[in-house]
Design goal:
- Helices cover about 30% and strands about 25% of the residues.
- It has a five-stranded mixed β-sheet.
- Strand 3, helix 3 and strand 4 form a beta-alpha-beta unit.
């Protein structure tokens, strides 16, 4: 497995962050993922006046991954400009489990050069996966 250029992924997530549509919460988020063939995908959060229809950056990122023919990511960066690092929400953690290996890395990064890394299994231990459907 090739090494992951975390700074490049962070820059892509930051660029996606700039495109976030967050007029209600003003909580912008960008995400970037890389697949096993080193293709990169990004997404941002898109809010809606009907709050339940809001889509998180991570889920938009994985939608782009699937739209472009990939099925798994080996790394994910979540970028915000919050003072405190922002981990993925519960819904996003479930989506991450679907498209990343248990040992794949997810990294939260911010504009203060802070970062924290989790494995997928640390983010959602004992996750419900397609194996549970059989």
């Amino acid at each position: 497995m090739s090494s992951i250029d975390w700074q490049r992924l962070m820059q892509m997530a930051k660029q996606a962050y700039e495109n976030a549509y967050a007029p209600y919460s003003n909580f912008k988020v960008g995400a970037a993922a890389i697949d096993d063939e080193d293709n990169r995908f990004c997404g941002c959060n898109v809010e809606n006046a009907s709050y339940g229809l809001t889509v998180c950056a991570e889920r938009n990122c994985f939608a782009q991954l699937i739209v472009n023919g990939a099925t798994t990511a080996k790394a994910l960066v979540v970028y915000t400009e919050q003072e405190k690092l922002t981990p993925p929400c519960g819904a996003c953690r479930q989506v991450i489990v679907e498209f990343m290996a248990p040992d794949a890395q997810v990294k939260a990064m911010n504009h203060l050069a802070q970062e924290k890394t989790w494995s997928v299994k640390e983010l959602l231990p004992d996750a419900f996966t397609p194996k549970d459907l059989t």
